[in-house]
Amino acid sequence: MMTREMIINELTNRGYNAVAQDSTKNGVILEGIVIRTEGSAIAPVIYTKELISKAEAEGKSLDDVVLRVIDTYEAHKDTTFDITQLTDRDFVLSHIRIGLQKESSEELIKGASELEGIESYLYICGDMGEDGYSIKVSKEYLVKSDVTEAEAWEQAKKNTFADTKIESMAKVLSKMMGIPYTEELEEATPFYVISNTKNIKGASAICDRKHLSEFTEKHHTKKLLVLPSSVHEMIIVPYTEDMDIDMFSDMVSQVNASEVAPEERLTDRAYILEF
After folding, report:
1. Which of 46, 62, 63, 195 is the most exposed place for a label (fewest CB within 10 A)?
2. DSSP string computed for 90-102
3. Cα–Cα distance for residue pair 116/103, rounded to 1 Å
4. Which backbone phi and psi does 154 adopt, to 5 degrees?
C-alpha cells in the first residue's frame, strides 16, 4: 500500500526538500506534503490521501504520484507573495470573513451560531496567483495585526454578508440539467441554496439575519427549515407546520455519509430558525 512517507522518500531521493505537514479542516486531520523552496516564505500543502486513493484505483504507480506532486509544486513555486501583508491591519480588515465548522477544540477566535453543534470562526481569505488561500484567525494573529476582536467580528460580518447569495434549487437544477426554468418548477421544489458568490465557505451566510429576514418576509413565513449541506452552503426551506424535522435530519445524515467529504461536513441534523 502506498503511503505519504514513500512519496516523501522518493521526492527526497530526487533532490526535493519535502516534509510532512498535517492540517486540520473542520475537525478532520488531513495528511499533506510541503516542498520547501529556498527563499520562499510560504509553500502550498499538497494533500496525499486523495492522490493515493485515485492512483490505486487507476492502477498508477508511486512514480506517477510523485510526478503529480512535482507538477503541482512546479506550477506554484514561482508564485510571488508579500507575506508581510498578512499582518497588515488594512489588509486583514478587508480580507477577514466568517466561516462555519463543527464544534471543535481548535484555539481560534470563535463565536456562537444559532445552530447547535456548529461554531463560527474568523478567517482571512485571499488570492495567490490562480489559487485562493485561507488562514484561520487566532488571538495572537489579531494582536500582530493591531486589530481588536470587536473590530474583527464587525468587519467580518460586513465582508461576509456583502456576498450572501440565495438561489432556488429549481434554478440550480435547471442550470445543471440544461432544462428551462419556470416558476412552476420552483413551486414544486421549494428548496433554496444559501451561500456566497464564490460558493466557498459560504455556509456562514446562514448567520446573515438581514437577508434571511427579507427572504422569510417574501415567502410569508416566520420560520425556516435549515439543512446543513456542507461548510460551503446550506439549504433553506420556508417552514410549514406539517414538516417532519426528524425526516429531514435523516436526510441530512444520509447525504453527509454518501456525498460530503468528512472535512466539509457540518452536523447530521436539520434546524428551525425563527424570525
Report:
1. 63
2. HHHHHHEEEEEEE
3. 9
4. -60, -45
What is the separation of C-alpha 111 from the centre of its chain, rounded to a whole number of angstroms?
A: 17
26-64 pLDDT, tens digit per residue, is: 888 899 999 987 766 567 789 999 899 999 999 999 999
Element (H, E) at 153: helix 149-161
| One-letter-per-residue 3-state SS of 183-246 | HHHHHHCCCEEEEECCCCCHHHHHHCHHHHHHHHHHCCCCEEEEEEEECCEEEEEECCCCCCHH
Tell me the pLDDT of the chain averaged across its residues: 90
Cell numbers at 53, concatenated: 486513493
Residues paired with residue 207 on neighbouring β-strands, in sequence order? none
Task: List the beta strands (DSSP E) in 38-171.
Answer: 46-47, 96-102, 110-112, 118-128, 131-136, 164-168
Integer Cα distance of 180 and 201 in angstroms: 29
Which among 46, 41, 27 has a CA at the least distance from the CA of 231?
27
Residue 179 C-alpha cell reads as 432544462
Q: Which residues of 153-180 are buried (b: 16+ CB within 10 A; e: fewer)?
A: bebbbebbbebbebebbbebbbeeeeee
